[in-house]
Amino acid sequence: MSRRSNKTTWLALTLAVSAYVSTQVHAEPLGSLDALSQEQFIKLSENLAAATHYKGMGPAESLGLIGFDVGIELSSTEIEDDAVFDVASDGDFGLSEMIIPRVHVNKGLPFGFDLGATLAAIPETDITVLAGEVRYAIFGGGVATPAVAVRGSYAMMQGLSDLDMNSAALEITASKGFVMLTPYVGAGIVRTKTDPAAQLTNLSAETIEQNKLFAGVTISLGFALTLEADVTGDVRTYSAKAGIRF
Questions:
Q1: How far apart are alpha carbons 189 and 180 in whole angstroms?
Q2: Fewer CB within 10 Å: C terminus or N terminus of the chain?
Q3: What is the pLDDT of residues 190-206, one digit of tens each?
Q4: The whole model's pTM is what?
């Protein structure tokens, strides 16, 4: 595929995601956290952590010194308990899933290391999520052997005046390429610190740990299309990323 064709495809995908996001109706940010019990607050925090923690969206092999992976991403995270979100929204939250668009960039470094970052701005809210990763390819993979990598990541959610939240994760990924397809699987643990504002005297800060399992596939079609499903705690997320990977 030519460079001009790549640019055209990239622009079309960007416009498609932008159009999709613009049609979504989102509730106002969670402004009634004081109405939650501590148990409900933990449930809400687990769901938000599953939606907003860093998602690697790619196979294990290193990009290499001159490699880049740049894409736009859309994820859909189920809302495990609608009633909790309704209480925290002082009414009907109105959604059964959280749709989160992201811009995703990865850069290869020497010695099997990669750096990555994502930026999400949740439509119709002031919520943004800034996240990043450091990844190391333990095994580069070969004709008959898979690539294996470990990843450490960190994500900060901002925009809710009554809640501070950040998540750190440690994951391991294995992948094996077959012509245009590179499937991958992985597991990890997500540790989230969630701190309600001081005026919410009925709620206490929590540190939550959730196990994570994920699987995906990257399809090379001149551009790179990655599809991934993960289960973090008891919450499922489905994600898609389209972009350029080389």
A1: 30
A2: N
A3: 999 999 998 888 999 99
A4: 0.85
